[in-house]
Specification:
By secondary structure, the protein is α/β, with parallel strands linked by helices. It is built from 3 helices and 8 strands, in the order αβαββββαβββ.
């Protein structure tokens, strides 16, 4: 499927499994952050929407205004972080490389790259909207 030219209806009908939609204050800013820090790819990028791909997985970014009739919009804080309590794990992103790019992309490191007892090296990175992305790589045996 060509994510850059697919119609909204055809894209919607194609979705299956688990979906991830993030409501963000600024779609282009969030897309740039994900591309610059984690090497994701942005498709159909506009002020209101983007399809983001990462190692064969998809997520969608929606501007707040696109959720005008959705009950979720009333639960969002007007300011401050939005993603409290959720970890968005990226198991194929190098935590050291991602952490090195965070400042330039406008994010914040919550935990620098650290070797964990569960066999992963991880960095906890908060994006400008307050969502926490965990860049992870397996530790060598």
């Amino acid at each position: 499927m060509d994510f850059d030219s697919v119609t909204a209806a055809d894209f919607g009908r194609s979705l299956s499994g688990l979906g991830l939609n993030l409501l963000v204050r600024d779609v282009p800013r969030e897309a740039r952050f994900l591309v610059d820090v984690f090497g994701m790819q942005a498709h159909r990028l506009s002020q209101d929407f983007a399809i983001i791909s990462y190692h064969g997985q998809l997520l969608q970014l929606h501007a707040d205004g696109t959720y005008h009739a959705n009950p979720l919009l009333s639960l969002l804080p007007e300011s401050g972080p939005r993603g409290a309590g959720a970890e968005l794990r990226l198991f194929q992103s190098d935590p050291d490389q991602a952490a090195a790019r965070v400042d330039a992309a406008g994010g914040m490191i919550l935990q620098p790259p650290t070797d964990k007892p569960h066999g992963l090296r991880e960095a906890y990175i908060m994006d400008p909207d307050g969502y926490v992305w965990v860049a992870s790589r397996p530790l060598p045996d």
